[in-house]
Amino acid sequence: MSKAEIEIVTNVINGRWLSAYANYEHEKIGVLLGGLEPRQVEALIAGVPTSFDDPRRQIVYELASTLVQPRVVPVGMYHRAVAAIGVAGIVDVTVLMGWFTSVSLTLAAFEVPSNATGLTEEE
Questions:
Q1: Pick from 49, 34, 18: which is nearest to 26 by CA?
Q2: CA 25, 29, 30, 32: dihedral to nearest 10 degrees?
Q3: In 3D, which of 17, 121, 15, 5 has the Cα closest to residue 56?
Q4: Are the C-beta atoms of 33 and 42 separated by less than 8 Å?
Q5: How far is CA 96 from the centre of its chain?
Q6: Helix 20-32 / helix 38-46 crossing angle, nearest 10 deg
Q7: How far apart are CA 100 and CA 39, in angstroms?
Q8: Which tens digits make up the pLDDT trace of 64-94?
Q9: Concatenated DSSP letters for 22-66?
Q10: Tens of pLDDT, residues 88-123
Q11: Which helix (H) or strand (E) segment is 101 a member of?
Q12: Nearest-angstrom CA–CA distance, 66 and 69
């Protein structure tokens, strides 16, 4: 997966789980390192529709957005995903979603604010 594709998935998940710190950080990372447009990243976090000119980015977005909802991946979408990113790419998307779900939920459990700076050894 490209950095842009990783940031698409990461921002969809972080937005879904309301993780203040992860949203704050990956809103910047999505633009600076992922090369995404700020409005696209904002839409990913907010859960509102957006689109991508690149067909791989578009199917990664559609797949991740579908999987975070109580929805079934339609057969047509599955076939488009296989054609664009392959079965291994689908696995990459779902594993990344699982990873960032655990990160987001951990940050939420400890109520890590968006401006967190980290702990010292004494804490």
A1: 34
A2: 140
A3: 5
A4: no
A5: 8
A6: 150
A7: 21
A8: 999 999 889 999 999 999 999 999 999 999 9
A9: HHHHHHHHHHHTT---HHHHHHHHHT-----SSHHHHHHHHHHHH
A10: 999 999 999 999 999 999 998 888 888 888 777 665
A11: helix 75-109
A12: 5
How many residues would you count in the chain?
A: 123
Rounded Cα distance between 123 and 107, Å, is 17
Contact yes or no for 64/97 (Cβ under 8 A): yes
**78 Cβ contact partners less than 8 Å away, ≥ 6 residues apart:** 90
Contacts of 83 (CB under 8 A, 6+ apart): none
Cβ partners under 8 Å of residue 121, min gap 6: none
